[in-house]
Amino acid sequence: MDFEVQQHGFTLTDLMIALAIAGLLTAIAIPSYRESVRKSKRAEGRAALMQAMQQEERFYSGHNSYIRFHSSSTDEEERKFKWFSGNSAKSSAYEIKAESCQDESIESCVQLTAMPGTYNVDLKFRDLECGDLILTSTGVKTASSTDCWN
């Protein structure tokens, strides 16, 4: 009688090939995922700027002036403005502030700036491509890159 021994399982070579493929897929997927998250948070920042500008325009119609605000505002009117981009400050990617436009008074022009990853919001968030997102009451939209407002 001959007994044949059948072996089942994976060889070390099979395991190494599978690990190499998994590593390659991970190396491709993680940067794509991070870029997708960054674009999503950037959209959150743009939406928050648009919402704050609408609030500024409503304020202007009642007071004939825009209003400055920032995260540490103490004035009752200034505190009515949301200074972060998300649902809560710590989960937000951007901190928002309002100030007068360059070489203009706050009565005639306001500039909203969304600053990524400050101490008052998610400090880990970085957007090196776009940096600060800026929106003025005159409709000017600026950032470090031209694709940031698309």
Automatic annotation (TrEMBL):
Keyword terms of this UniProt record: Membrane, Transmembrane, Transmembrane helix
InterPro entries for the chain: N_methyl_site (IPR012902), PilE-like (IPR031982), Pilin-like (IPR045584)
Biological process according to GO: type IV pilus assembly
Record field: transmembrane: 15-33
One Pfam assignment: N_methyl
Domain of life of the organism encoding this protein: Bacteria
NCBIfam families in UniProt: IV_pilin_GFxxxE (TIGR02532)
Name the UniProt record assigns to this protein: Pilus assembly protein PilE
